[in-house]
Design a protein that fits this description.
Blueprint: E1 3-10, E2 13-20, E3 23-33, E4 36-45, E5 58-62, H1 68-84, E6 88-92, H2 96-105, E7 107-108, E8 115-116, H3 124-130, H4 133-151, E9 156-161, E10 165-168, H5 171-187, E11 192-195, E12 211-215, H6 225-231, H7 234-243, H8 254-263, E13 269-274, E14 278-281, E15 295-296, E16 302-304, H9 306-310, E17 317-319, E18 324-327, H10 333-369, H11 378-392
Parallel strand pairs: 1-7, 5-6, 5-9, 6-8, 11-13, 13-18
Antiparallel strand pairs: 1-2, 2-3, 3-4, 9-12, 10-14, 11-12, 15-16, 16-17
């Protein structure tokens, strides 16, 4: 599309983007004053010519899911978290239709909205040797966060599967947990520290991207992630898949490759969890595998399955991997229950409101097309419509 005008929901007012060939050339920001509804400030910027800054925290929000029933809620949460941490954010998105839907659906907390696409030139020959075709897009998206941050002088960043991972906690509490994770990574000089969504369930053998804090640190020889990825010998990687993971894959995902880098101590990678906070990865969840919603207990070092508890089944869980670092904000189980109860009440309210709107529409349709005589004076019609409403009550 040569020229495009997009309206965006904005918590402080309203945004309008004017685009040429998919690039935002002008952004018009209308800021409303809550105390004076008639007053509004107008701000016009040119995002295309804005210089990148490297003095703030940065979130890279990877998005590719069109399961809008879950993805939009996840994205809104991560935008709120980034905003609360006073961080910049970049969407990594390769689908223009998805980008437009995000812009038209999400209520953005600030006006600094940036989309970038995956860089498919990063380690192209290396990735084709060690990464499966089905996982290449995800690998390029993750490594785009690495390359973009490196190019723009960003030393540390969060890399988030923003359309699939949801944490059942208040924004302030998520921020506290992530801030503590940052401190742990800095103090223990980890290259990356990631949330435990798969390591424990894979018996401590897999390290995965998802909610991951990355640092551009280098070893004593000046080597970073790129040098180590290039140094991988495909044959040794296959042996690792077969012997350690029990897989017959000839190639696999970037997370599997980083699992190898961790197992061989080429990169210092670690995993953390948060006690008594529900976490779900919608990409890995369906009604046949509903146990993907997990919650780590505070005393027994076990990941519990809340759905089983809700159905009064015998409590089920898996042992947390020995090397997982625990972040404990001293929440009780009631914290989760209260948060989930709030979501259920909001959902019920929305459902009732929707049903009421549908009923009102159906009633209006019945009055208009079924019960209204074709030949009647305005006075007679008014009387009959009033009687219809009485009957409906």
């Amino acid at each position: 599309m040569l020229f495009e005008k997009i309206g965006i929901n904005y918590k402080k007012g309203h945004l309008t983007q004017l685009r040429i060939c998919g690039k935002t050339v002008i952004q018009i920001e209308h800021i409303f004053d809550e105390n004076n509804p008639l007053s509004k400030d107008l701000k016009i910027t040119c995002p295309l010519f804005k210089k990148e800054t490297n003095n703030k925290k940065v979130f890279y929000l990877k998005v590719n899911s069109k399961n809008y029933k879950t993805s939009m809620k996840c994205i809104e949460q991560w935008l709120d978290v980034a905003n609360k941490m006073d961080a910049d954010y970049y969407f990594i998105c390769d689908d223009k239709d998805l980008e437009r839907n995000i812009l038209k659906t999400i209520n953005f907390p600030n006006a600094d909205i940036k989309f970038i696409t995956s860089d498919r030139t990063i380690l192209k020959s290396t990735l084709k040797k060690i990464c499966s075709v089905s996982h290449l897009n995800a690998a390029y998206a993750t490594l785009t966060a690495y390359k973009h941050s490196e190019t723009n002088g960003i030393k540390n960043f969060w890399c988030i599967d923003a359309d699939s991972i949801y944490i059942f906690a208040q924004t302030n509490d998520i921020v506290k947990s992530l801030t503590r994770a940052e401190n742990i990574a800095e103090n223990q000089d980890f290259h990356a520290l990631t949330l435990d969504t798969e390591r424990s369930s894979c018996l401590g053998l897999k390290w995965n991207f998802g909610v991951t804090y990355v640092r551009h640190n280098q070893d004593e020889y000046g080597n970073g992630y790129e040098a180590y990825l290039k140094s991988i010998v495909p044959k040794k990687l296959l042996e690792y898949y077969r012997i350690m993971l029990g897989l017959n894959h000839t190639k696999s995902s970037l997370s599997d490759i980083f699992s190898y880098l961790k197992a061989t101590s080429l990169l210092k990678l670690a995993t953390f969890n948060m006690t008594n906070i529900f976490v779900i990865n919608w990409n890995l969840c369906n009604f046949d595998d509903i146990s993907r919603m997990i919650c780590t207990g505070t005393t027994d070092k076990t990941q519990h399955v809340p759905f089983y508890d809700a159905l009064l089944f015998k409590p089920a869980g898996i042992k947390v991997a020995d090397d997982v670092i625990t972040i404990d904000l001293k929440f009780t189980q009631n914290y989760n229950r209260n948060y989930v109860s709030k979501i259920l009440l909001e959902s019920a309210h929305n459902l009732i409101s929707t049903q009421q709107r549908v009923s009102a529409t159906q009633m209006k349709s019945t009055i208009t097309f079924q019960n209204m005589p074709s030949k009647e004076s305005p006075k007679g019609l008014k009387s009959k419509i009033a009687n219809l409403f009485k009957n409906k009550k």
